[in-house]
Amino acid sequence: MDVQILHQDDSIVVADKPSGLLAVPGRGAEKLDSLAWRVQQRWPDARVVHRLDMETSGLMVFGLGLAAQRAVSMAFEQRRVDKRYIAVVAGLLHEDAGTVDAPLICDWPNRPRQKIDAMHGKPSLTHWTVLARDPHAQTTRVRLEPVTGRSHQLRLHMLHLGHPILGDTLYADRAARAAAPRLMLHAQWLRIPHPGSSELLEFDCPVPF
């Protein structure tokens, strides 16, 4: 699978990660291939700022050098980065928009799964908007805007609404898993302050499904 570089300057690289490719290397030589590894073949000083699940496609940003990585990482931590994802979920959402506020925590006996835990979970907030409904297929295309960045947040928040993302092998039921050849989740749009100039940069990545 090919990796498309969408932007590169003295401070950052922005790439489109394909679904099925690891964001960063896993354990063992057989899991070395990843978006980070491929980017570092061209830019050896590229450093990971944030991650996407292997099954999720879309925009990832790398800092070129430690100072750029720290600056972009700080922007993520301080929620100065705006993100939009596109997903296709099972069922027809009745409302046109809403917010999921459901704290998340690691489900340790069942790692890498996460779970909603109102008492011990970390605050997790997602805004969602319906883009299109398909009554024939009984699916809904939604735009997801995470305020926080918890692991598996979007997948669990859609499940919490009763509408799992199609193709989700971790959380969806059998029918929703089988309804798509991949996880139907794509990091489509990103706005970040440039680590050098603080200029707001916007990146858009076409949805492959």
Characterise the protein shown here.
This protein folds into two domains: 4-81, Pseudouridine synthase (2-Layer Sandwich); 84-185, 2-Layer Sandwich (Pseudouridine synthase). The chain is built from four helices and twelve strands; from the N terminus they run ββαββαββββββααββ. It has helices spanning 35-42, 66-77, 153-160, 174-178; strands at residues 4-8, 12-17, 46-48, 57-64, 82-90, 97-101, 104-106, 114-116, 125-134, 139-146, 185-193, 200-204. The radius of gyration is 17 Å and the shape is globular. It holds the Pfam family PseudoU_synth_2. Belongs to the pseudouridine synthase RluA family. InterPro entries: PsdUridine_synth_cat_dom_sf (IPR020103), PsdUridine_synth_RluA-like_CS (IPR006224), PsdUridine_synth_RsuA/RluA (IPR006145), RluA_PseudoU_synthase (IPR050188). This is Dual-specificity RNA pseudouridine synthase RluA.
Distinctive features:
single chain; about 210 residues; alpha+beta; Pseudouridine synthase; 2 domains; 10-stranded mixed sheet; two-stranded antiparallel sheet; 4 helices; rRNA processing
